[in-house]
Automatic annotation (TrEMBL):
Family that this chain belongs to: Belongs to the DEAD box helicase family.
InterPro entries cross-referenced by the UniProt entry: DEAD/DEAH_box_helicase_dom, Helicase_ATP-bd, Helicase_C-like, P-loop_NTPase, SPB4-like_CTE
Protein name: ATP-dependent RNA helicase
Reactions this protein catalyses: ATP + H2O = ADP + phosphate + H(+)
GO biological process terms held by the UniProt record: rRNA processing
Superkingdom of the organism of origin: Eukaryota
Length: 880
């Protein structure tokens, strides 16, 4: 036997070089379940190596054609192997005891040395993996057992003698995370990576980690809360149209408008907030603060009184026209919300008697030139994002805001979150300075319009920043809120802040890091099996890189997309722009958006890993504006089932959470929201951060069984031809009870293989992994006990991105100015340009905490702001 291919404990599962248990091996999963059957069967075969058991390189991903080990190598669904690239193996299996004791031996045999045994001895299912269980090797030839035992004994003794501290440290790190406080004290100075204490004996790059997703996962630390109301009878909707006889016609609205709402817009009755606020806004000239839950119809709540009063003024005075002045400005925090408000306004103004009222939409990211042209032509209601409006107020002389009678600040909390405070202040100052008593067009003296400008501030949540915005903009404001009764305790309790609509079913799943990807896949598969019809689903991620990675993993490009080169709208070609402007001029002024007319260039693909009928979309702030717009547009109009990929990581605050889940269960409709949390401190999120006992608790296993279970036909794509059927037959669990586990593993293996095979996908995975950690570090201070970056097991996390590299070896290429996801954390000296290694994050991102507190806070604030800018698009749009 040559020295190079001698058996080394570090090369197998079970023990580390120091002889202590390798924490990646989970006794509960080793040969658990059906593997026992397989083990028993092999034992019955007499332990002889059969000719057909010879491992054939070409037949599976284990060896390359040249006979060298395909590095890393999967051998068994429930085991890991660290393979040396220069050792040739053939598989052999020896007398496996037909007992339930799970002490089978499965080995790889270097061609040059038939006697070499690699031990996969595992403790019985359910028992702790202890040093003593190692001795219980059974099955096979007595010689093999004896040798293996001696080797292990030797290593253990050596390790005991040399470094007892290492053993202690290793034991600690193999424990599941417990309470936040316990975990905190354990991990303060501990690196949570796959790097073993004495692993410096071999170069890291040579040692990819190929572990089963079902091994060594931390266990949940909480039990289901008996006080939860999640599983009680379905709650009555709290944001639905009223069914108590309330009608638009009895709210003081002009009959034309009321009948238009019912007959054309098909809205049967007002929602609670509409019923409360519309009559007040029609009859009073006071400012107003409107607070109502997500999806309760706030847009119409402020638009209807404005349109009604302009209409009433027209009836009394001379006819108004587009040049009569801009009477109302509506500010939205994001372009998507701006576009959405504009669409509702267009629907409202589509009545023939209102066609003379002209709205204008001005948004960041669109062409200023065409916007200027629209402004020049005049309009009566302006919908805008703050930055672009401030720009036009300075640079577009034709924008006349002298006679603005309404200023609406929609989604006030978001406006502040996104850092628009200063811009809003500039806008308020400009409006005040330019205020006139009469409209520009003296012939249209609008007698019945408010004398002073009315400001309406809307928010679903009430927090200090909203109050600050209120102080800035409101004067003696009315406080208007929904009077809807909640199911449990009568009137909504405003002191609680804000709760999600009662009919929205919320749940959280405790998912270990390594099972995140398969759990996500499982939920998506299950969702589309159950509800085929135009089912739409949003997945929120914490960063753009993660969106890109998962979009690649789950999607494939459609043929259309491949054929159609993406039109570049950022071209400087003046001619193009002029032509486009001409086109726009010739279109009806009330056409919702010019982009909707363009051929689709949305970020869309098919999702065979979920269901071949499912379309996949991705959306984040790093995409070009025209792509964002087209994507949302296509998503809304998608007839087949559709998934929009955004974020599946927990949000940055309770308010973010509410906004996100509020995209569903709108206007009384049903909705479901699921949150992924990792075992350990994250489990405190529902009670400590959300303070909501309506979230049902589930475990990853339950979710995986549903998506990968027996009842479900296998959807693992045929691309798994690299997984040889013989290999599957030999090494995958066979009986039906664990079908889900087998399929989940196979799914994950395929992703890992694709990452290995494609440099581009591998780079995406690395960037996503890194950005995910950085995003994780930006949780607000009060939530840091829940999202404690020092508790993140980076090795396991890397696995959920299909990576087999050790965290410290993951190199993220940076090309000049990167997108936000890969940007260096501001103020972090370790993240300069060039090839960056995650080694700087081996201490669970501790670098972020080592900085001067003030500097760190500033860095995190900037990072969070940037992330929000990029990622909150989906938290704003109307998701029916
Ligand atoms: N009276 C009504 N009856 C039925 N549907 C309504 C009614 N009013 C509004 N809607 C619909 O409810 C949905 C949500 O409306 P809107 O976007 O105005 O809610 P919102 O309160 O602003 O929500 P968010 O704060 O989450 O943005 C829209 O699809 C809208 O068409």
């Amino acid at each position: 036997m040559s020295a190079s291919n001698k058996y080394k404990p570090t090369e197998h599962d079970g023990l580390k070089e120091d002889g202590t248990p390798d924490k990646r091996v989970n006794p509960e999963h080793g040969f658990g379940g059906q593997d026992r059957e397989q083990v028993a069967e092999l034992g019955r075969q007499g332990g002889k190596t059969q000719p057909d058991e010879i491992y054939k390189p070409s037949e599976h991903g284990g060896l390359k054609k040249d006979g060298t080990v395909d590095n890393p190598t999967y051998i068994d669904t429930a085991h890991l192997i660290r393979a040396d690239s220069d050792v040739k193996y053939k598989v052999f299996r020896r007398g496996l005891a037909p007992t339930a004791g799970l002490h089978g031996l499965i080995g790889f045999e270097p061609m040059a040395e038939p006697d070499l045994l690699v031990n996969f001895d595992l403790a019985p299912a359910g028992q702790a993996f202890t040093a003593s269980s190692i001795n219980g090797i059974r099955g096979g030839r007595w010689k093999d057992r004896f040798r293996a035992k001696k080797r292990l004994q030797y290593k253990r003794n050596k390790s005991d003698r040399s470094d007892t501290n290492v053993l202690k440290q290793s034991k600690e790190s193999s424990r599941p995370r417990h309470t936040p406080a316990e975990a905190e004290s354990n991990s303060r100075h501990r690196s949570r990576t796959d790097k073993e204490p004495n692993s410096t004996s071999r170069p890291q790059q040579d040692r990819p980690v190929v572990s089963s997703i079902f091994s060594s996962n931390p266990l949940p630390v909480t039990k289901p809360d008996p006080t939860t109301t999640a599983n009680t009878a379905p709650a009555a909707p709290t944001n639905a149209p009223l069914q108590d006889g309330s009608a638009f016609a009895t709210m003081g609205l002009a009959p034309t408008l009321a009948s238009h709402l019912v007959n054309t817009m098909k809205l049967k009755a007002p929602t609670s907030i509409q019923q409360t606020a519309i009559p007040q806004l029609i009859s009073s000239d006071s400012d107003a603060f409107i607070q109502a839950e997500t999806g309760s119809g706030k847009t119409l709540t402020y638009l209807l009184p404005i349109v009604h009063r302009i209409l009433a003024a027209t009836l009394k005075g001379d006819k108004l026209h587009r040049d009569s002045g801009c009477f109302a400005v509506v500010l939205a925090p994001t372009r998507e919300l701006g576009r959405q408000i504009y669409t509702v306004l267009m629907q409202l103004l589509s009545h023939p008697s209102l066609h003379w009222l002209v709205p204008i939409l001005i948004l960041g990211g669109e062409k200023k030139k065409s916007e200027k042209a629209r402004i020049r032509k005049g309009g009566n209601i302006l919908v805008a994002t703050p930055g672009r409006l401030a720009d036009h107020l300075v640079n577009t002389s034709s924008l006349d805001v002298g006679y603005v009678k309404w200023l609406v600040l929609d989604e006030g909390d978001r406006l502040m979150d996104l850092g628009f405070e200063e811009t809003l202040q500039q806008i308020l100052t400009a409006l005040n300075q330019r205020a006139q008593t009469q409209p520009k067009d003296q012939s249209s003296v609008a007698l019945d319009l408010p004398e002073r400008r009315i400001t309406v501030l809307c928010s679903a949540t009430m927090k200090p920043s909203v109050q600050k915005l209120g102080d800035m903009s409101l004067k003696d404001a009315l406080y208007l809120k929904s009077m809807q009764k909640t199911q449990d305790n009568g009137d909504e309790d405003s002191s609680k802040g804000f709760q999600a609509p009662a009919q929205l079913k919320q749940a959280y799943i405790v998912v270990p890091a390594k099972l995140r990807l398969v759990s996500l896949a499982s939920i998506l598969r299950r969702a589309f099996v159950r509800k085929k019809e135009n089912m739409k689903l949003i997945v929120f991620f914490s960063c753009a890189d993660s969106v890109d990675f998962h979009y690649e993993v789950f999607g494939t490009q459609t043929d259309d997309e491949l054929e159609q080169p993406e039109p570049s709208l950022s071209s400087d070609d003046e001619e193009d722009e002029e032509n486009e402007e001409e086109d726009e001029e010739s279109r009806s002024e009330k056409e919702p958006t010019s982009v909707a007319k363009r051929p689709s260039n949305s970020a869309k693909s098919k999702a065979p890993l979920i269901d071949s009928a499912v379309s996949l979309f991705k959306l984040h702030g790093s995409l070009a504006q025209h792509t964002r717009t087209a994507t949302l547009n296509d998503f809304f109009h998608e007839k087949d089932a559709a998934v929009l990929f955004l974020q599946y990581d927990p949000p940055y605050s309770k308010e973010d959470y509410i906004h996100r889940i509020g995209r569903t269960a709108r206007a009384g409709r049903e909705g479901r929201a699921i949150l992924f949390l990792m075992p350990g401190c994250e489990e405190g999120y529902p009670s400590d951060v959300l303070g909501d006992n309506r979230l049902a608790r589930k475990l990853a296993d339950e979710v995986l069984k549903k998506g990968f279970g027996d009842s479900k036909p296998s959807k693992v794509p045929k691309q798994s031809k690299s997984v040889d059927p013989a290999w599957k037959k030999d090494f995958m669990p066979k009986t039906s009870g664990q079908q889900w586990e087998q399929e989940a593993i196979e799914f994950h293996l395929n992703v890992e293989r694709r990452v290995l095979a494609s440099g581009d996908l591998a780079n995406l995975a690395r960037k996503a992994f890194q950005s995910h950690i950085r995003a994780y570090a930006t949780h607000i201070a009060s939530e840091r006990g829940i999202f404690d970056i020092k508790q993140l097991h980076l090795g396991h996390l890397a696995k959920s991105f299909g990576l087999r590299e050790r965290p410290g070896d993951i190199k993220v290429p940076i090309h000049g100015k990167t997108r936000h996801g890969s940007e260096a954390v501001p103020g972090n000296p370790r993240t300069g340009p060039g090839k960056r290694s995650l080694a700087s994050m081996e201490n669970g991102g501790e670098a972020l905490y080592e900085q001067d507190e003030e500097e760190r806070q500033e860095a995190t604030r900037k990072m969070r702001k940037k992330m929000k800018e990029h990622m909150n698009i989906a938290a704003e749009f109307n998701f029916g």
